[in-house]
Amino acid sequence: MSYATISIGNLLTDINSRYFLPAIQRPYVWGADQVITLIDSLLKGYPISSFMFWSIDQALKRELKIYNFIENWKPGMQNPTASTDGRDIILVLDGQQRLTSLLIALRGTFSEKAKYKRRTSADAWTTKTLYLDLLKDPSAESEEDETDLGVSFGLRFHPHSPRNDHRHHWFRLGDMLNYPREDQLEALIDATLEKVHHGVTAYERELVTKTLRRLHQVIWSDEVINYYTETSSSVDRVLDIFVRANDGGTKLSKSDLLMSLITSKWENGSARDSIFGFVDHINNNLGNPNKINKDFVLKACLVLCGFDVHYKVSNFTNQSIAEIESNWPAIKDALERTFQLLNAMGISADNLTSLNSVLPIAWYLFHEPEATLRGSSIFDQQNARAVQRWLLNSLLVGAFAGTSDRTIAIARATLKEARQTSRDFPEQRLYHSLAVGGRITQLDERAVEDLLELKYEKGKTFLVLSLLYGDLDWNGTVYHVDHIIPKAHANRRVLMGMNMPEHRIQDITGSVDRLGNLQLLSAQENMEKGPLPFESWITGRSDAYRDKHLIDYTPDLWAASMLPDFVHGRERLIRQRLLNLTQREAA
């Protein structure tokens, strides 16, 4: 293995004209401080590690998806697809973050969001360019912020050309790319010295000269880029090299590696763009926040299309990728309907504790292409409730924790078998088939006792409350977790004003957020209830209403002063209903 060297200036000249990125690379993730630290390291003469390139032939160029480096960066940007016709192509396997940072520092810009501004606001983002203060002595101690980063040179991103004075003379770092020759450098130094403030000392004028010479040396004279070029046409070999080369850096997900293979075999459009776009759509455009990722989508493709569910490279063969692309519209549709259903039930990123538990539901909807389970038909209502009960049980007992691939495979086989005789979601069959090796698939007495310890604002709290209500209308109705005895009435200051002993105050404040004092109310009803005293709000409610919310007719306990006793009695009713639900489902 032989290495070669090249200067930064000569390398940047060929970025996006000869040097590009393969789809295997992850997005750019460095921050402005890391860009500054990289340039500071170069100016100090520190090594910045070696680079690895891949020289590809025309056949591979036609097969692979290739992307440009980003020059003008803004958070969330994806690398644009490159046009490579008529060019000799070299792909960067190791060094993308550093090369992109060099490109931003010397030829581009870096956008940052202002504090307290919304990301969608037009004035939230400021585009900045990297400047070097020629009057900053790198050998002198500094009390400025950059010392925390170990930065010695006066490097800073500015939104516009900063004003020069007797303390600072700013030089736009990228301007040095315009002076590759020594004679050009000398002319630059003379022109710069003519512009420095008249109050600058002779030592500082010499510092200007020295700093410009050092910057020119780093960019044009010294060949600081040390690289190895792989020439093999074997994608498997290059993937192996890529994994090993990146093992010491930021951990790569399997999807980063698989994306190259999938994208190269995707016939129409870009698999990478389509999957990235779909992930963003599910997470941000359904009205509720979701938190899926590329790995989940790719695993879902295996599950829904009937392939081995284990998420590994060998399962993404040419045949499986072709079938996934063929079914991609249906896969997207099934996943979107799945998350629309879950979001309608109040299940989103805040409380969906296992993405894998969603896959059996997605498989079911994939094979029921017309079903939304959100309509008014008996089929929709019964199966929506069955899906909800099964998912809530699975999430609350952690049915998909641990070695979930086996669980997913068993669930898919159960769904496939059940589909031969019925269109209904096989809730009971899933409980039974997944209970292998002693795995708990439904709430039992021990699980219920654990759930009774849940508090307000815990993700599982909404889930267990959802399970208690079997007749809620989830279509278009938003439900809130509400304190039955208002929290404002159980405030320590209020209780002290009632001359209660300290131990009783602690009992009350410790009970107010417990599950026994929480219920689900529609958003409208919750607003109407507000901070009204509970005894006032509950008066006039029917027996059926109180039964629905598991509230005993015990008016003497409907005050904040009796909250611990009220919570104790209601937890007994919650325990009983949860266990009855389990027994009824098992019958």
Number of helices: 23
Radius of gyration over alpha carbons? Answer: 31 Å
**Helical amount among residues, as a percent range?**
40-55%
Tell the overall outline.
flat
Mean pLDDT: 90
Strand content: 5-15%
N-C termini distance: 69 Å
Uncertain segments are 143-148
Structural class estimated from helices and strands: alpha+beta
Number of strands: 13
Widest sheet, order of strands: 1-11-3-6-2-4
Note the main sheet. Answer: 6 strands, mixed
Describe the structure.
This protein has 23 helices and 13 strands. The strands form three sheets. A six-stranded mixed β-sheet has the order 1-11-3-6-2-4. Strands 5, 7, 8, 9 and 10 form a five-stranded mixed β-sheet that branches. A two-stranded antiparallel ribbon has the order 12-13. It has 587 residues and is α+β, with helices and mostly antiparallel strands. It is flat and about 95 Å long.
Summarize the structure.
This protein has 587 residues and is an alpha+beta fold.
List the helices and strands and how they pair.
Elements: E1 4-6, H1 8-13, E2 19-22, H2 32-44, E3 51-55, H3 58-63, E4 66-67, E5 72-73, E6 90-94, H4 96-107, E7 109-113, E8 125-133, E9 154-158, E10 170-172, H5 182-195, H6 202-221, E11 225-230, H7 235-245, H8 254-265, H9 271-284, H10 294-304, H11 318-344, H12 359-366, H13 378-397, H14 404-419, H15 427-434, H16 445-451, H17 459-468, E12 479-483, H18 492-497, H19 502-511, E13 518-522, H20 523-529, H21 534-538, H22 543-548, H23 563-586
Parallel strand pairs: 2-6, 3-11, 5-7
Antiparallel strand pairs: 1-11, 2-4, 3-6, 7-8, 8-9, 8-10, 12-13
Helix pairs in contact: 2-4, 5-6, 10-11, 11-12, 12-14, 13-15, 13-17, 14-15
